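WARN no homologs supplied; continuing
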Amino acid sequence: MPSETIFKTVYQYNRIPILPEDMRKLQEIAEDCRKVRNYVYERYGGPGGLKKIYPGYTVQNEMTASGLRERLGLPSVYFYLSIFDALGDIKSQWSRTKSRIEKNIQANGAFTPEDRHYLRFAMKQSRCFEAIVAGEKVELTGDWEETYRSLCGEVDVHKLNQYLRRQVRKHLVRPHTDTADGFTASPKGYRYGDHGIYLSMKESRKRLFILLTDNNRYTRQIYIRLFPEEGNVTINVPVEVRQRHPAGYTGEMGLAVGMRCMFATDRGTFYGERYLEYQSALTNYIQERLPRHRKNAKNNPGMKKYNEGKARLEAALHAYVNAEINRMLETEKPAVIYYPKLPGTTKAGANRKVNATINMWQKGFVKSRLTQKCRERSIKLIEVFGKGISVLCSRCGGEGAKDGGMFCCKSCGLELPERQNTAANVLKRGKVDDSDRAGKANATNVPRRS
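OK structure emitted
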């Protein structure tokens, strides 16, 4: 059964500007947390650290023995959270690396089916993968050992292990951060009271009081985001809330997702028609200003101004996306939404400016916000296989042509805006897939006759 609760982030703000000396104390904690994360990245972010990062207690114990916390004078409530934040980044990087390697294995025409079987086994079996990456002898137990030995008899193990190690060296990027704009705090690192929050400082038994704009109190891990120029902080709090079941949300809807227009429905309604305007403003800003700041990034005061400008444009884009998704859901009120699987990053083409805009398309953010807002309203969101969906006629299923934003069917003569035709195809394909899934489920649940 789906969960009846979801997590969302709420924000708390300081009521009055924070004094410069107090802000410097917060910045010092953020800088120390950055140093801890980079220390973990450097020490455990490579192939040699793979054996230690799951579940991470070995790293925690070794970091305790390293003496880094004492040298920095950082409270443990910040030190250990920084360690596990860094471990989370390292694990995410390994997941991305494995995903790239698996795609390369699939695309490599020189491999036999036995080669691919061996490589997939090595990728999925964690102890096997860790040993291969470290260049050590693979030692497994029980049935795993028997399976591995049988696979080894059919392939050139040395060649395939060397391939895996080369792929890891090619795709694994050791994380690093130069950003110290905030830090994570556990419930032991703060307490609420007097219409504000008390944060633990580096001085023993000292807490910094921040007057807040609300009286809400939380007992969970929070993130303190610093804005020293304005003397402000933002407290990000993940909270678990019950899903809403608003009245009047019925029916099914197909969506076409794009950049020129964020969403088009199967009924021909369009939302987010200014998305490309916001995305292009961000892309142009990055293309024009980033190269000259990169030449001397460490000593260039303009880099700070560049980052602030980029953050403003991203915030404007994100606010527009959120507003348009809210407007669409409140207007259409669907119970089920079908949307196509979004395409991956495109390869470089002739028009570099257009290509850069497409590659910077924040489709991941759009998808995550749509998913979150549908969950908040208990709307069922179903992803549909999207290949070839824009060139088929939504009425007869024949192939058609797109011209000037319109779709024309060669068989039945249907003429529709191409995005509406795509959305209608998404709806049709989603319904068919749903009925197929329901049929398989019913067939599975039919009791057998004795």
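The chain has 13 helices and 15 strands.
OK
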